[in-house]
Amino acid sequence: MRTKHILYFAIASALVAGSAAAQTKLAGGFDQLKSLVGEWEGALSKGGTAHISYQLVSGGTALLERLQHGSEPEMVTMYTADGNHLAMTHYCNAGNQPHMRTGPTTGETKVFSFNFVRATNLESPEAGHMDHLVITLLDKDHFSQSWTWKEKGKTTVAVFKFTRKS
């Protein structure tokens, strides 16, 4: 009986591992985003400094971003493969959680454009929230983020430029 349980566990583990590998392969861009793992320092176009870090979590199927800008509370964003798209959820210090998604990502990708899909804890569509994100991988030690904030039909863009900490 014990051998049978061990065999079932081994088969289940192989299926889960195979499924995770297949999901990651579907969104080729996720492999490029993984190159961000590590610590980064940056500056905001409107002034001020920022620290950002990336860590692979959940068996390598999700990328955890932690962003600290000036004296603002830390914000967390999770990136995952979603078929041949990438998805992200941003846990904003505004108290809402925008969910965004790219178009299909295939081949070598250096620019990731995430479009608003929905948000949790958003009082109304007019309430302030992150509405768009563009991540541009410049080279192995530099990248930028362009965040678009939307509130009452108006948008504001903030650009961060990051350099890898050595």
Q: Can you walk me through this structure?
A:
The chain has helices at residues 2-26, 28-33, and strands at residues 38-44, 49-57, 62-69, 75-82, 85-91, 97-101, 111-120, 129-139, 142-151, 154-164. By secondary structure, it is of the alpha+beta class. It has one domain (2-164): Calycin beta-barrel core domain (Lipocalin), CATH 2.40.128. Strand 9 and strand 10 form a beta hairpin.
How widely separated are the two ends? 53 Å
Order of strands, widest sheet: 1-2-3-4-5-6-7-8-9-10
Strand percentage, roughly? over 45%
User: What structural class do the secondary elements suggest?
Assistant: alpha+beta
Provide the helix percentage. Answer: 10-25%
Detail the topology: elements first, then pairings.
Elements: H1 2-26, H2 28-33, E1 38-44, E2 49-57, E3 62-69, E4 75-82, E5 85-91, E6 97-101, E7 111-120, E8 129-139, E9 142-151, E10 154-164
Antiparallel strand pairs: 1-2, 1-10, 2-3, 3-4, 4-5, 5-6, 6-7, 7-8, 8-9, 9-10
